[in-house]
Amino acid sequence: MQAIINGRIVMPDRVVTGQALLFDEKIAGLCAPDALPSGCAVIDAAGQYVAPGLVDLHIHGYMGEDASDASAEGVRIMARSIARNGVTSWLPTTMTVSKQQLCAAFDNIRTLRQESRTPSWDGAEILGVNAEGPFINPARKGAQSGEHVLLPDPGFVLDFADVIRIVTLAPEMKGGLDFIDTLRSRTDILVSIGHTDATFEQAKAAVEHGAGHVTHTFNAMTGLNHRAPGAAGAALTLPVTAELIADTFHVHPALFPLVAKMKGEKLCLITDCTRAGGLSDGEYTLGGQPIFVRGIECRLADGTIAGSVLKLNSAVKNLLDYAGLPVWEAVNCASRNPAAAIGQANKGTLEAGRDADIFLCDDRFAVSRTILRGKTIFMDI
């Protein structure tokens, strides 16, 4: 048994002080610091936040690697590196690339998902794949490759139903609603509305058929207008979980309070990070296309926004700064809410019985230690 003392423990509905957090591979609960079990190993948080491990549902790359490369070592590097940001579980996210590349990437992640559940794994746990495309609308492809866009094909997804957790769909494309019907009746894959030119009415129809999520809200979709609410209006008002890239560039921070108020427990912070994440400004690639990174901005040569270099702990701090939320609610948006969106009841909170996925950070959300199922996978020394 281990215990973390002298911390501000972030629970789903409050921050607890004056208690110790007990855990082994699972969270055992809270107790008084003077009532620790005999022989318990003690970690002194020294006043830091003790928070549930973050869950990144949408991240393409980091430290020069990309999930679509189908490189086993590349995904391992990503898993180890994002642990530095308090991330304990994640969905490696693919792009609209060729079917051959997608199959290779899915197979690679399927194997590594099993590896990430073993005691020797030293990075964030892989929960499956987020397939961002190829079933998108070319008119809203953003930084995705138009040559590999396909009409909705549930058969292709069913072949990888054991590993795909989220798939993005433009529901207005031919066969879009049938695609949703098939996946909802035969799998537990979360269908996400994104890269779409859908009207509000078309997005609402998709939700009525079973779509339950929205890909990077406001970006690569029809915008919010008082006479035509579009997919953005659907994301805000319908009962779906909604992603937000809270880097203050993809979405103006003045809108963070609105999104947080409208979505509540259905708001999921994501990074949409590219292989440039964690590296210096310069030229990189995304989905086979060159991207140019300057500060928090990633763009194609023609100026199209192309992913981010956001860290998920920074997204939490940005939401905290601009949305006026309590700490626990901002943390939920990157832990409890995304875990719930993909049915991971054992992740995302420090409640008893959940996996002991924990990170320690200061008031700026700079991470000092990350723990996965009771094992330290990152420590700032």
Descriptive overview:
With 381 residues, the protein is of the alpha/beta class. It is 25% helix and 28% strand.
Question: Any descriptors?
Answer:
nine-stranded parallel β-sheet, alpha/beta, 381 residues, six-stranded mixed β-sheet
Q: Using the alpha-carbon principal axes, give the shape.
A: globular
Beta strands, count: 24
Tell me the radius of gyration: 20 Å
Average pLDDT for all residues = 97
Figure out the total of helices: 10
Q: Give the strand content.
A: 25-35%
Q: What summary fits the major beta sheet?
A: 9 strands, parallel
Alpha-beta content class: alpha/beta
Helix proportion range = 10-25%
Question: Separation of termini?
Answer: 23 Å
Which stretches are low in confidence, meaning pLDDT under 50 for 5 or more residues running?
Answer: none
Task: Annotate the secondary structure layout.
Layout (H helix, E strand, L loop, with lengths): L1 E4 L2 E4 L2 E3 L3 E4 L3 E5 L9 E4 L4 E4 L1 E6 L1 E2 L2 E2 L5 H11 L4 E8 L4 H17 L9 E2 L2 E7 L18 H5 L5 E6 L6 H11 L3 E4 L6 H10 L3 E2 L15 H8 L3 E5 L10 H8 L3 E4 L11 E5 L2 E6 L2 E3 L12 H12 L3 H6 L3 H6 L16 E4 L5 E6 L2 E5 L2
Parallel strand pairs: 1-6, 2-7, 8-11, 11-12, 11-13, 13-14, 14-15, 15-16, 16-17, 17-18
Antiparallel strand pairs: 1-4, 2-3, 4-5, 7-22, 9-10, 19-20, 20-21, 22-23, 23-24
Helix pairs in contact: 5-6
Outline:
With 381 residues, the chain is of the alpha/beta class.
